[in-house]
Design brief:
mainly alpha; single chain; two-stranded antiparallel ribbon; 489 residues
Length: 489
Protein backbone atom coordinates (compact mmCIF):
# COMPACT_ATOMS: atom_id res chain seq x y z
CA UNK A 1 0.00 0.00 0.00
CA UNK A 2 1.35 3.38 -0.87
CA UNK A 3 1.79 5.86 1.92
CA UNK A 4 -0.74 8.57 2.61
CA UNK A 5 -2.61 7.91 -0.58
CA UNK A 6 -5.37 10.41 -1.36
CA UNK A 7 -8.10 9.13 -3.61
CA UNK A 8 -10.01 11.71 -5.63
CA UNK A 9 -12.99 10.04 -7.33
CA UNK A 10 -14.84 11.52 -10.28
CA UNK A 11 -18.59 12.00 -9.86
CA UNK A 12 -21.52 12.25 -12.24
CA UNK A 13 -22.92 15.77 -12.44
CA UNK A 14 -26.10 15.98 -10.33
CA UNK A 15 -28.10 17.86 -12.96
CA UNK A 16 -29.54 14.56 -14.20
CA UNK A 17 -31.47 14.18 -10.92
CA UNK A 18 -33.68 17.12 -11.90
CA UNK A 19 -35.60 14.64 -14.04
CA UNK A 20 -36.68 12.68 -10.94
CA UNK A 21 -39.26 15.20 -9.65
CA UNK A 22 -40.67 15.43 -13.17
CA UNK A 23 -40.95 11.65 -13.39
CA UNK A 24 -42.68 11.29 -10.03
CA UNK A 25 -44.97 14.26 -10.64
CA UNK A 26 -46.04 12.77 -13.97
CA UNK A 27 -46.79 9.46 -12.26
CA UNK A 28 -48.82 11.19 -9.54
CA UNK A 29 -50.90 13.17 -12.05
CA UNK A 30 -51.43 10.23 -14.41
CA UNK A 31 -52.30 7.59 -11.79
CA UNK A 32 -55.68 6.91 -10.19
CA UNK A 33 -56.29 8.84 -6.99
CA UNK A 34 -56.18 5.69 -4.82
CA UNK A 35 -52.70 4.78 -6.17
CA UNK A 36 -50.99 8.13 -5.68
CA UNK A 37 -47.94 8.14 -3.40
CA UNK A 38 -47.11 11.76 -2.68
CA UNK A 39 -44.05 10.75 -0.66
CA UNK A 40 -42.45 9.77 -3.97
CA UNK A 41 -42.35 13.49 -4.76
CA UNK A 42 -40.63 14.10 -1.41
CA UNK A 43 -38.18 11.27 -2.10
CA UNK A 44 -37.31 12.75 -5.49
CA UNK A 45 -36.76 16.19 -3.96
CA UNK A 46 -34.55 14.81 -1.18
CA UNK A 47 -32.44 12.82 -3.65
CA UNK A 48 -31.91 15.94 -5.75
CA UNK A 49 -30.99 17.94 -2.65
CA UNK A 50 -28.53 15.33 -1.35
CA UNK A 51 -26.88 15.03 -4.75
CA UNK A 52 -26.18 18.76 -4.81
CA UNK A 53 -25.19 19.09 -1.13
CA UNK A 54 -23.09 15.92 -0.70
CA UNK A 55 -20.93 15.08 -3.72
CA UNK A 56 -19.96 11.74 -2.18
CA UNK A 57 -23.49 10.41 -2.68
CA UNK A 58 -23.32 10.99 -6.41
CA UNK A 59 -22.63 8.15 -8.83
CA UNK A 60 -18.94 7.57 -9.51
CA UNK A 61 -17.74 7.79 -13.10
CA UNK A 62 -14.14 6.71 -12.54
CA UNK A 63 -15.22 3.31 -11.19
CA UNK A 64 -18.82 2.95 -12.27
CA UNK A 65 -18.84 -0.75 -11.30
CA UNK A 66 -18.31 0.41 -7.72
CA UNK A 67 -20.45 -1.26 -5.02
CA UNK A 68 -21.26 2.29 -3.92
CA UNK A 69 -22.89 2.86 -7.30
CA UNK A 70 -24.79 -0.40 -6.92
CA UNK A 71 -26.09 0.61 -3.48
CA UNK A 72 -27.09 4.06 -4.71
CA UNK A 73 -28.76 2.55 -7.77
CA UNK A 74 -30.74 0.07 -5.68
CA UNK A 75 -31.85 2.84 -3.34
CA UNK A 76 -32.95 4.85 -6.37
CA UNK A 77 -35.04 1.90 -7.55
CA UNK A 78 -36.52 1.51 -4.07
CA UNK A 79 -37.35 5.18 -3.60
CA UNK A 80 -38.40 6.21 -7.13
CA UNK A 81 -38.93 3.33 -9.55
CA UNK A 82 -40.85 1.06 -7.18
CA UNK A 83 -43.31 3.79 -6.04
CA UNK A 84 -43.83 4.96 -9.64
CA UNK A 85 -44.65 1.38 -10.70
CA UNK A 86 -47.11 1.08 -7.81
CA UNK A 87 -48.87 4.23 -8.99
CA UNK A 88 -49.06 2.91 -12.55
CA UNK A 89 -49.90 -0.76 -11.93
CA UNK A 90 -51.32 -0.87 -8.40
CA UNK A 91 -50.41 -2.70 -5.21
CA UNK A 92 -52.69 -5.72 -5.21
CA UNK A 93 -51.42 -9.22 -4.45
CA UNK A 94 -53.95 -12.01 -3.97
CA UNK A 95 -51.50 -14.17 -1.98
CA UNK A 96 -51.00 -11.69 0.86
CA UNK A 97 -53.22 -11.32 3.91
CA UNK A 98 -54.39 -7.86 2.87
CA UNK A 99 -53.79 -4.95 0.55
CA UNK A 100 -51.63 -2.28 2.21
CA UNK A 101 -53.27 1.07 2.78
CA UNK A 102 -51.93 4.04 0.88
CA UNK A 103 -50.87 5.59 4.21
CA UNK A 104 -48.79 2.47 4.99
CA UNK A 105 -47.05 2.61 1.64
CA UNK A 106 -46.36 6.31 2.15
CA UNK A 107 -44.86 5.49 5.55
CA UNK A 108 -42.66 2.77 4.05
CA UNK A 109 -41.25 5.32 1.58
CA UNK A 110 -40.52 7.70 4.45
CA UNK A 111 -38.57 5.00 6.32
CA UNK A 112 -36.54 4.24 3.19
CA UNK A 113 -35.91 7.95 2.81
CA UNK A 114 -34.40 8.01 6.32
CA UNK A 115 -32.22 5.10 5.22
CA UNK A 116 -31.07 6.95 2.09
CA UNK A 117 -30.17 10.13 3.95
CA UNK A 118 -28.30 8.15 6.62
CA UNK A 119 -26.40 6.27 3.92
CA UNK A 120 -25.40 9.55 2.27
CA UNK A 121 -24.24 10.93 5.62
CA UNK A 122 -22.16 7.81 6.13
CA UNK A 123 -20.46 8.48 2.80
CA UNK A 124 -19.96 12.12 3.79
CA UNK A 125 -18.23 11.33 7.08
CA UNK A 126 -16.14 8.46 5.69
CA UNK A 127 -12.44 9.17 5.38
CA UNK A 128 -10.95 9.57 1.90
CA UNK A 129 -7.43 8.78 3.03
CA UNK A 130 -5.45 5.60 3.42
CA UNK A 131 -2.56 6.08 5.80
CA UNK A 132 0.79 4.34 5.65
CA UNK A 133 0.00 2.36 8.79
CA UNK A 134 -0.10 -1.43 8.48
CA UNK A 135 -3.55 -2.45 7.17
CA UNK A 136 -5.70 -5.08 8.86
CA UNK A 137 -4.22 -8.55 8.47
CA UNK A 138 -6.95 -9.83 6.16
CA UNK A 139 -6.59 -6.88 3.82
CA UNK A 140 -2.78 -7.12 3.79
CA UNK A 141 -2.88 -10.83 3.02
CA UNK A 142 -5.32 -10.38 0.18
CA UNK A 143 -3.03 -7.82 -1.43
CA UNK A 144 -0.78 -10.66 -2.59
CA UNK A 145 -1.27 -12.47 -5.88
CA UNK A 146 -2.09 -16.19 -5.53
CA UNK A 147 0.48 -18.58 -6.90
CA UNK A 148 -0.23 -21.58 -9.17
CA UNK A 149 -0.54 -23.92 -6.18
CA UNK A 150 -3.48 -21.88 -4.89
CA UNK A 151 -5.31 -22.15 -8.22
CA UNK A 152 -4.71 -25.91 -8.33
CA UNK A 153 -5.85 -26.46 -4.74
CA UNK A 154 -8.94 -24.30 -5.29
CA UNK A 155 -9.79 -26.18 -8.49
CA UNK A 156 -9.41 -29.55 -6.76
CA UNK A 157 -11.61 -28.44 -3.85
CA UNK A 158 -14.25 -27.14 -6.26
CA UNK A 159 -14.30 -30.36 -8.29
CA UNK A 160 -14.65 -32.35 -5.06
CA UNK A 161 -17.69 -30.24 -4.23
CA UNK A 162 -19.23 -31.08 -7.61
CA UNK A 163 -18.59 -34.78 -7.05
CA UNK A 164 -20.24 -34.65 -3.62
CA UNK A 165 -23.34 -32.93 -5.01
CA UNK A 166 -23.76 -34.48 -8.47
CA UNK A 167 -21.80 -37.70 -8.30
CA UNK A 168 -21.30 -37.98 -12.06
CA UNK A 169 -21.00 -35.75 -15.16
CA UNK A 170 -24.30 -37.18 -16.40
CA UNK A 171 -26.19 -35.65 -13.49
CA UNK A 172 -24.61 -32.27 -14.18
CA UNK A 173 -25.81 -32.44 -17.78
CA UNK A 174 -29.26 -33.50 -16.60
CA UNK A 175 -29.32 -30.58 -14.19
CA UNK A 176 -28.72 -28.02 -16.95
CA UNK A 177 -31.26 -29.63 -19.26
CA UNK A 178 -33.94 -29.90 -16.60
CA UNK A 179 -33.69 -27.48 -13.63
CA UNK A 180 -36.50 -29.40 -11.89
CA UNK A 181 -33.88 -31.97 -10.93
CA UNK A 182 -32.31 -29.36 -8.62
CA UNK A 183 -35.32 -29.70 -6.29
CA UNK A 184 -34.80 -33.47 -6.12
CA UNK A 185 -31.08 -33.08 -5.41
CA UNK A 186 -31.82 -30.50 -2.74
CA UNK A 187 -34.14 -32.95 -0.99
CA UNK A 188 -31.52 -35.70 -1.26
CA UNK A 189 -28.70 -33.61 0.16
CA UNK A 190 -30.57 -31.54 2.76
CA UNK A 191 -29.14 -32.08 6.23
CA UNK A 192 -26.27 -34.27 4.98
CA UNK A 193 -22.53 -33.68 5.16
CA UNK A 194 -22.30 -34.20 1.40
CA UNK A 195 -24.76 -31.38 0.85
CA UNK A 196 -23.01 -29.05 3.27
CA UNK A 197 -19.49 -29.72 1.99
CA UNK A 198 -20.66 -29.64 -1.60
CA UNK A 199 -22.16 -26.20 -1.04
CA UNK A 200 -19.08 -24.61 0.52
CA UNK A 201 -16.60 -26.35 -1.82
CA UNK A 202 -18.20 -25.61 -5.21
CA UNK A 203 -17.36 -21.84 -5.06
CA UNK A 204 -13.68 -22.83 -4.97
CA UNK A 205 -13.83 -23.69 -8.67
CA UNK A 206 -14.94 -20.16 -9.57
CA UNK A 207 -12.23 -18.70 -7.33
CA UNK A 208 -9.65 -20.97 -8.96
CA UNK A 209 -10.48 -19.29 -12.26
CA UNK A 210 -10.26 -15.88 -10.60
CA UNK A 211 -6.85 -16.75 -9.09
CA UNK A 212 -5.57 -17.93 -12.49
CA UNK A 213 -6.85 -14.80 -14.22
CA UNK A 214 -5.50 -12.51 -11.48
CA UNK A 215 -2.06 -14.05 -11.89
CA UNK A 216 -2.23 -13.41 -15.64
CA UNK A 217 -3.12 -9.76 -14.97
CA UNK A 218 -0.45 -9.17 -12.34
CA UNK A 219 2.38 -10.88 -14.20
CA UNK A 220 1.73 -9.33 -17.61
CA UNK A 221 2.31 -5.70 -18.50
CA UNK A 222 -0.99 -4.24 -19.79
CA UNK A 223 0.77 -2.71 -22.78
CA UNK A 224 2.02 -6.14 -23.86
CA UNK A 225 -0.82 -8.48 -23.03
CA UNK A 226 -4.21 -6.76 -23.14
CA UNK A 227 -5.61 -9.28 -25.61
CA UNK A 228 -4.36 -12.19 -23.56
CA UNK A 229 -5.76 -10.73 -20.35
CA UNK A 230 -9.08 -10.07 -22.04
CA UNK A 231 -9.24 -13.60 -23.44
CA UNK A 232 -8.33 -15.06 -20.05
CA UNK A 233 -11.03 -12.91 -18.47
CA UNK A 234 -13.66 -14.14 -20.95
CA UNK A 235 -12.69 -17.76 -20.28
CA UNK A 236 -12.81 -17.17 -16.53
CA UNK A 237 -16.21 -15.42 -16.77
CA UNK A 238 -17.69 -18.29 -18.79
CA UNK A 239 -16.29 -20.84 -16.35
CA UNK A 240 -17.58 -18.90 -13.33
CA UNK A 241 -21.04 -18.64 -14.91
CA UNK A 242 -21.28 -22.37 -15.64
CA UNK A 243 -19.90 -23.36 -12.24
CA UNK A 244 -22.17 -21.08 -10.21
CA UNK A 245 -25.30 -21.78 -12.26
CA UNK A 246 -25.34 -25.05 -10.32
CA UNK A 247 -26.61 -23.12 -7.29
CA UNK A 248 -30.25 -23.59 -8.31
CA UNK A 249 -29.80 -21.26 -11.30
CA UNK A 250 -29.53 -18.34 -8.88
CA UNK A 251 -28.57 -15.37 -11.05
CA UNK A 252 -26.75 -13.44 -8.32
CA UNK A 253 -24.49 -16.45 -7.71
CA UNK A 254 -22.76 -15.92 -11.05
CA UNK A 255 -23.62 -12.29 -11.89
CA UNK A 256 -21.84 -10.87 -8.83
CA UNK A 257 -18.49 -12.66 -9.33
CA UNK A 258 -18.53 -11.92 -13.06
CA UNK A 259 -19.37 -8.27 -12.31
CA UNK A 260 -16.45 -8.17 -9.86
CA UNK A 261 -14.15 -9.65 -12.51
CA UNK A 262 -15.23 -7.00 -15.02
CA UNK A 263 -14.78 -4.27 -12.40
CA UNK A 264 -11.19 -5.34 -11.72
CA UNK A 265 -10.42 -5.53 -15.45
CA UNK A 266 -11.84 -2.05 -16.02
CA UNK A 267 -9.90 -0.59 -13.07
CA UNK A 268 -6.55 -2.36 -13.50
CA UNK A 269 -6.18 -3.39 -17.15
CA UNK A 270 -8.19 -1.22 -19.49
CA UNK A 271 -11.17 0.97 -18.73
CA UNK A 272 -14.38 -0.31 -20.28
CA UNK A 273 -16.24 2.60 -21.91
CA UNK A 274 -19.70 3.33 -20.47
CA UNK A 275 -21.28 2.86 -23.91
CA UNK A 276 -19.87 -0.67 -24.16
CA UNK A 277 -21.21 -1.41 -20.69
CA UNK A 278 -24.67 -0.08 -21.62
CA UNK A 279 -24.76 -2.22 -24.77
CA UNK A 280 -23.64 -5.29 -22.83
CA UNK A 281 -26.33 -4.71 -20.21
CA UNK A 282 -28.94 -4.28 -22.93
CA UNK A 283 -27.97 -7.65 -24.37
CA UNK A 284 -27.49 -9.54 -21.13
CA UNK A 285 -30.47 -8.37 -19.05
CA UNK A 286 -33.00 -10.11 -21.34
CA UNK A 287 -30.91 -13.27 -21.06
CA UNK A 288 -31.16 -13.10 -17.26
CA UNK A 289 -34.94 -12.73 -17.47
CA UNK A 290 -35.13 -15.65 -19.89
CA UNK A 291 -33.04 -17.72 -17.50
CA UNK A 292 -35.49 -16.98 -14.70
CA UNK A 293 -38.39 -17.90 -16.97
CA UNK A 294 -36.63 -21.13 -18.00
CA UNK A 295 -36.06 -22.10 -14.38
CA UNK A 296 -39.65 -21.28 -13.38
CA UNK A 297 -41.13 -23.12 -16.36
CA UNK A 298 -39.30 -26.33 -15.47
CA UNK A 299 -40.29 -26.42 -11.83
CA UNK A 300 -42.90 -28.96 -10.71
CA UNK A 301 -46.44 -27.70 -11.28
CA UNK A 302 -45.39 -24.89 -13.60
CA UNK A 303 -47.78 -24.17 -16.46
CA UNK A 304 -46.58 -22.46 -19.60
CA UNK A 305 -48.53 -19.34 -20.50
CA UNK A 306 -47.78 -17.81 -23.89
CA UNK A 307 -50.90 -15.67 -24.02
CA UNK A 308 -50.14 -13.05 -21.40
CA UNK A 309 -51.67 -9.65 -21.95
CA UNK A 310 -49.65 -6.46 -21.69
CA UNK A 311 -51.38 -5.67 -18.42
CA UNK A 312 -50.51 -9.09 -17.01
CA UNK A 313 -46.89 -8.70 -18.09
CA UNK A 314 -46.70 -5.29 -16.43
CA UNK A 315 -48.20 -6.75 -13.28
CA UNK A 316 -45.59 -9.49 -13.28
CA UNK A 317 -42.80 -6.96 -13.80
CA UNK A 318 -44.19 -4.84 -10.98
CA UNK A 319 -44.32 -7.83 -8.63
CA UNK A 320 -40.69 -8.63 -9.49
CA UNK A 321 -39.51 -5.08 -8.80
CA UNK A 322 -41.49 -4.80 -5.56
CA UNK A 323 -40.30 -8.20 -4.35
CA UNK A 324 -36.60 -7.70 -5.05
CA UNK A 325 -36.50 -4.05 -3.99
CA UNK A 326 -38.74 -4.41 -0.93
CA UNK A 327 -41.09 -1.85 -2.43
CA UNK A 328 -43.91 0.07 -0.70
CA UNK A 329 -46.62 -2.62 -1.08
CA UNK A 330 -44.63 -5.30 0.75
CA UNK A 331 -42.82 -3.11 3.27
CA UNK A 332 -46.00 -1.10 3.88
CA UNK A 333 -48.12 -4.20 4.53
CA UNK A 334 -45.45 -5.66 6.80
CA UNK A 335 -45.20 -2.51 8.91
CA UNK A 336 -48.96 -2.04 8.88
CA UNK A 337 -49.55 -5.55 10.25
CA UNK A 338 -46.92 -5.02 12.95
CA UNK A 339 -48.55 -1.75 14.04
CA UNK A 340 -45.57 0.40 13.05
CA UNK A 341 -43.18 -0.71 15.74
CA UNK A 342 -45.73 -0.76 18.55
CA UNK A 343 -43.85 -3.80 19.83
CA UNK A 344 -40.15 -3.52 19.01
CA UNK A 345 -38.06 -6.68 18.82
CA UNK A 346 -34.96 -4.98 20.25
CA UNK A 347 -32.52 -6.61 17.86
CA UNK A 348 -33.67 -10.21 18.39
CA UNK A 349 -34.68 -10.82 14.75
CA UNK A 350 -31.39 -9.26 13.58
CA UNK A 351 -29.44 -11.75 15.69
CA UNK A 352 -31.63 -14.59 14.42
CA UNK A 353 -31.19 -13.43 10.81
CA UNK A 354 -27.41 -13.37 11.23
CA UNK A 355 -27.27 -16.88 12.71
CA UNK A 356 -30.07 -18.57 10.76
CA UNK A 357 -27.87 -19.56 7.77
CA UNK A 358 -25.37 -21.32 10.07
CA UNK A 359 -25.60 -25.12 9.66
CA UNK A 360 -27.10 -26.99 12.64
CA UNK A 361 -26.70 -24.04 15.03
CA UNK A 362 -28.87 -21.81 12.86
CA UNK A 363 -31.83 -24.19 12.87
CA UNK A 364 -33.05 -22.89 16.22
CA UNK A 365 -32.93 -19.30 14.93
CA UNK A 366 -34.78 -19.71 11.64
CA UNK A 367 -38.33 -19.48 12.96
CA UNK A 368 -37.53 -16.20 14.74
CA UNK A 369 -35.47 -14.60 11.98
CA UNK A 370 -36.50 -11.47 10.13
CA UNK A 371 -37.21 -13.51 7.01
CA UNK A 372 -39.59 -15.82 8.86
CA UNK A 373 -41.34 -12.88 10.54
CA UNK A 374 -41.67 -11.05 7.21
CA UNK A 375 -43.12 -13.98 5.28
CA UNK A 376 -45.42 -15.06 8.11
CA UNK A 377 -46.76 -11.50 8.33
CA UNK A 378 -47.33 -11.14 4.59
CA UNK A 379 -48.87 -14.56 3.99
CA UNK A 380 -50.54 -15.03 7.37
CA UNK A 381 -49.12 -18.54 7.77
CA UNK A 382 -45.75 -20.31 8.11
CA UNK A 383 -44.14 -22.31 5.33
CA UNK A 384 -43.59 -19.51 2.80
CA UNK A 385 -40.03 -18.20 2.45
CA UNK A 386 -39.95 -16.57 -0.99
CA UNK A 387 -39.94 -12.88 0.04
CA UNK A 388 -36.76 -11.09 1.19
CA UNK A 389 -37.25 -8.73 4.11
CA UNK A 390 -35.75 -5.30 3.38
CA UNK A 391 -32.91 -4.39 5.73
CA UNK A 392 -34.53 -1.03 6.47
CA UNK A 393 -37.81 -2.65 7.50
CA UNK A 394 -36.09 -5.15 9.78
CA UNK A 395 -34.07 -2.40 11.41
CA UNK A 396 -37.26 -0.39 11.97
CA UNK A 397 -39.24 -3.17 13.68
CA UNK A 398 -36.24 -3.86 15.94
CA UNK A 399 -34.93 -0.40 16.85
CA UNK A 400 -37.35 2.03 15.16
CA UNK A 401 -35.94 5.03 13.23
CA UNK A 402 -32.75 4.96 15.31
CA UNK A 403 -31.98 1.49 13.94
CA UNK A 404 -32.62 2.55 10.35
CA UNK A 405 -30.42 5.64 10.61
CA UNK A 406 -27.55 3.98 12.47
CA UNK A 407 -27.61 0.85 10.30
CA UNK A 408 -27.47 2.69 6.98
CA UNK A 409 -24.95 5.21 8.28
CA UNK A 410 -22.63 2.29 9.13
CA UNK A 411 -23.32 0.73 5.73
CA UNK A 412 -22.18 3.94 4.04
CA UNK A 413 -18.99 3.99 6.12
CA UNK A 414 -18.26 0.32 5.38
CA UNK A 415 -18.73 0.58 1.63
CA UNK A 416 -16.56 3.71 1.50
CA UNK A 417 -13.78 1.86 3.31
CA UNK A 418 -14.12 -1.10 0.94
CA UNK A 419 -13.81 1.29 -2.00
CA UNK A 420 -10.53 2.62 -0.58
CA UNK A 421 -9.14 -0.89 -0.17
CA UNK A 422 -10.21 -1.79 -3.71
CA UNK A 423 -8.33 1.22 -5.10
CA UNK A 424 -5.24 0.49 -2.99
CA UNK A 425 -5.09 -3.27 -3.61
CA UNK A 426 -1.77 -4.20 -5.20
CA UNK A 427 -3.04 -7.40 -6.78
CA UNK A 428 -5.97 -8.22 -9.03
CA UNK A 429 -7.04 -10.97 -6.65
CA UNK A 430 -7.13 -8.56 -3.71
CA UNK A 431 -9.14 -6.08 -5.73
CA UNK A 432 -11.55 -8.86 -6.75
CA UNK A 433 -12.00 -9.97 -3.14
CA UNK A 434 -12.76 -6.41 -2.01
CA UNK A 435 -15.16 -5.85 -4.90
CA UNK A 436 -16.95 -9.16 -4.41
CA UNK A 437 -17.49 -8.77 -0.67
CA UNK A 438 -18.53 -5.12 -1.02
CA UNK A 439 -20.94 -5.93 -3.87
CA UNK A 440 -22.81 -8.32 -1.63
CA UNK A 441 -22.64 -5.72 1.14
CA UNK A 442 -24.24 -3.19 -1.21
CA UNK A 443 -27.31 -5.41 -1.50
CA UNK A 444 -28.13 -4.56 2.12
CA UNK A 445 -29.54 -1.36 0.70
CA UNK A 446 -32.59 -3.40 -0.34
CA UNK A 447 -32.04 -7.02 0.74
CA UNK A 448 -31.81 -8.62 4.15
CA UNK A 449 -29.05 -9.30 6.64
CA UNK A 450 -29.67 -13.05 6.37
CA UNK A 451 -28.82 -13.02 2.64
CA UNK A 452 -25.46 -11.35 3.28
CA UNK A 453 -24.70 -13.73 6.16
CA UNK A 454 -25.60 -16.70 4.00
CA UNK A 455 -23.06 -15.57 1.41
CA UNK A 456 -20.45 -15.00 4.12
CA UNK A 457 -20.99 -18.52 5.46
CA UNK A 458 -21.18 -20.49 2.20
CA UNK A 459 -19.48 -18.53 -0.59
CA UNK A 460 -16.45 -16.82 0.93
CA UNK A 461 -14.45 -19.83 2.10
CA UNK A 462 -11.88 -19.43 -0.71
CA UNK A 463 -11.09 -15.95 0.64
CA UNK A 464 -10.94 -17.22 4.21
CA UNK A 465 -8.66 -20.12 3.25
CA UNK A 466 -6.32 -17.94 1.22
CA UNK A 467 -6.08 -15.43 4.06
CA UNK A 468 -5.35 -18.22 6.59
CA UNK A 469 -2.70 -19.76 4.31
CA UNK A 470 -0.87 -16.46 3.76
CA UNK A 471 -1.07 -15.59 7.45
CA UNK A 472 0.22 -19.01 8.47
CA UNK A 473 3.05 -18.89 5.96
CA UNK A 474 4.20 -15.49 7.13
CA UNK A 475 3.86 -16.47 10.76
CA UNK A 476 6.04 -19.51 10.14
CA UNK A 477 8.59 -17.38 8.34
CA UNK A 478 8.53 -14.87 11.16
CA UNK A 479 8.03 -11.91 8.90
CA UNK A 480 5.32 -9.46 8.01
CA UNK A 481 3.09 -9.84 5.02
CA UNK A 482 4.75 -8.44 1.92
CA UNK A 483 2.85 -5.42 0.64
CA UNK A 484 3.56 -5.95 -3.00
CA UNK A 485 4.80 -8.48 -5.49
CA UNK A 486 3.63 -11.86 -6.64
CA UNK A 487 3.29 -14.57 -4.05
CA UNK A 488 4.89 -17.96 -4.71
CA UNK A 489 2.47 -19.72 -2.37
Amino acid sequence: MTSAKQLVPAFLHPAWTLSLPLLTLTAVLASPAQNRLFTALLAAAVIVLMQWLIPKCRFRTDHYFSPLNLALGLLLVKLIIAPVMVMIVGAGNDLFVAVPSRESMEGAVIIDLFAYVAFCLGLFFASDRLTDQRPPSMIAALFETPGPVTAIVFAAAGLLGFILVFGSPGRIVAYFLDPATSADMKDELEGSWSGFLGTILRPFLAFALVAWWARCVDRTAPSKGIRGQLLAGVVAAIGITLANLTFSFNRAAFVFPVLSLVAVYSARVRRIPPLVTAIALGLLLPVLFLLAHFRASRLPGAVADDSKTTQASMGEANDTVQGYAGGPPLAGLFLQELKWGEHLFGGSTLVASAFSPVPILGKSFRDSSGSALYNNTLYGMPGWEDQIIPFSSELFVNLHVFGVVSGFFMLGLALSKAQLFFAAAQSAFGAFAMQYIATWGATLSVWSLSVFCQIAIYFLWPIYLYWAAVQSRNWLRGMRVQRAGVSHF
